Amino acid sequence: MNNIALISNDECKIPSDYTGHLISDIEKLAEGSCDNLYVGDMLDYIASENLDIVFTELLKKIKVEDGLMHIKAPDILQTCWYASRMNLETTKLRYILYHTKRKNCYSMEEMISTILSIPNSKIVNAHYVNGYEYSITVNKYED
Fold first, then answer.
1. In a designed cystine with 102, which of 44, 66, 78, 127 is the match (CB 3.0 to 4.6 A)?
2. 32 φ/ψ sector (left φ>0, alpha ψ -120 to 50, else beta)
3. Contact 122, 52 (CB under 8 A)
């Protein structure tokens, strides 16, 4: 299995059965080479006007039909709701929204809308993980 986790630096946490690969070197991955591509919250570091372009390039890296892309990131709306209703610590909220140098913090609905606008992409699963993060699994198909 070729399981790749995209990272921005050596401090990023990745699933244990994945190999870390710098997002800046994504062009070095062959098209259709990944069984699983763990994107995590890397898309939050992409300016919104470039999100569909980057997502299209990432999608090319997974195998047709069998390959999966996994996105797990904080949902801006759920994070704010969770902070106000469930006593999410202010320090954690500030860390999520500001200290990580995100360019954006998307809602799950925004991410789903972007995914559905990309040709040949299909959402396999989408759900909330811990109250304020979403998890979306995507694959691709050919016409």
1. 44
2. left
3. no
Q: Distance between CA 120 and CA 142 in Å, rounded? A: 6
Mean pLDDT by 10 residues, the chain (143 residues): 85 85 89 94 85 90 93 86 77 75 85 92 93 91 81
Kindly give the pairing relationship between strand 3-7 and strand 36-40: parallel
Angle at 33 between CA 29 and CA 37, to 5 degrees: 80
| Tokens encoding 9 | 């630096």
Summarised one tens digit per residue, pLDDT across range 11-48 is 678 888 999 998 888 889 999 999 999 998 888 888 88
Please state the CATH superfamily assignment of the domain spanning residues 3-140 in this structure: Vaccinia Virus protein VP39 (3.40.50.150)
Start-to-end CA distance of the chain, whole Å, equals 25
Please say whether the beta carbons of 35 and 63 come within 8 A: yes
Question: Which parts of the chain are beta strand (E)?
Answer: 3-7, 19-22, 36-40, 68-74, 121-128, 133-140
Nearest alpha-carbon partner for 109 in 80, 75, 132, 137: 75
